[in-house]
Specification:
With about 290 residues, the protein is an alpha/beta fold. The chain has twelve helices and nine strands. Strands 1-9-8-7-6-5-4-3-2 form a nine-stranded parallel beta sheet, with helices on both faces. Strand 7, helix 8 and strand 8 form a beta-alpha-beta unit.
């Protein structure tokens, strides 16, 4: 039984809603934990960016994603809810995806109903598989998990009315939660009472859908897990570009007005003391 999956289930039972910023590597996951969040999400969009230097094109393979998730789970002690794309293929592929994801230590995952390979809906309008095919994937996922605590979230990119119908069918098929992408503020506000189960919501700044709303506001509407999928990715990219342009112009990083963590603070944050202890206990004292 997964400790983190049980922990996520407990947190869901104890809280009206949870906030899970989107991580894309071990360092971003550690930052989420250090900031005091109880759960981290992941973002396939972010993983595509940091690994391939691409938008979410669906080109990251199952094995590449599993490798990233394993490192993320090893780096933190909070539950991680992972992006499993479209399960990397048919229901047969979903079975393997569940087995491989469970090995990483994730507390849960979501599978979307896009045709394979999936694409980011902000780049190209998604093409969907049938509701019937997606139900087969959900049932396969539920049957394949060894740990019943593993949270299985079914995501749909369908238009609003169809999304509600699909979401309810996915809950009936055994999903623990659904994820829907509201296209307008009106859809965001109308959605929760129409779905017969908990809803996972992604927040995107400056798109006119959730502008001015906090996670608490969305929690009061009835959303159970609220994520900020790309906020860390965009902030990191903006600050890297700002620093690099300054260095290019000035030939130094001295005088840069952005934030820097000190060398000593970074060593403390990244866990250098633990590794110093390992060297002292098991290496240095036994060297000839």
């Amino acid at each position: 039984m997964s400790i983190q999956a049980r922990k996520l289930r407990r947190l869901l039972a104890e809280n009206d809603y949870l906030v899970a910023p989107g991580a894309y590597d071990a360092l971003s996951a550690k930052c989420i934990e250090a900031a005091g969040f109880q759960v981290a999400g992941t973002t396939g969009y972010g993983m595509h960016g940091v690994v391939l230097g691409q938008p979410d094109t669906g080109q990251l393979t199952l094995s590449e994603t599993v490798d990233i998730l394993t490192k993320m789970c090893n780096a933190v002690d909070i539950p991680i809810l992972a992006d499993a794309e479209g399960g990397y293929g048919s229901a047969l592929n979903v079975i393997r995806t569940i087995k491989e994801y469970e090995k990483t230590g994730v507390a849960g995952l979501f599978i979307e109903d896009q045709k394979q390979p999936p694409n980011c809906p902000f780049i190209k309008a998604p093409e969907l598989i049938s509701t019937r095919e997606m139900i087969g994937k959900i049932k396969a996922a539920v049957a394949a998990r060894e740990d019943p605590s593993l949270l299985i979230v079914a995501r749909t990119d369908a238009p609003f009315e169809e999304a509600v119908e699909r979401a309810n069918a996915y809950m009936d098929a055994g999903a623990d939660m659904v994820k829907i992408l509201p296209k307008t503020r009106e859809e965001l506000e109308k959605l929760p009472p129409l779905v017969k189960g908990p809803i996972h919501l992604g927040m995107y700044a400056n798109k006119g859908i959730n502008d001015g709303l906090t996670a608490e506001d969305c929690g009061k509407m009835g959303y159970k897990i609220i994520t900020f999928p790309v906020s860390l990715l965009f902030a990191q990219t903006a600050n890297l570009l700002k620093l690099l342009r300054y260095m290019k112009e000035n030939g130094t990083d001295e005088g840069f007005q952005g934030d820097f963590i000190s060398f000593a603070d970074y060593l403390k944050f990244i866990g250098a003391d633990y590794y110093r202890d390992i060297y002292a206990k098991y290496i240095d004292k036994y060297l000839d």
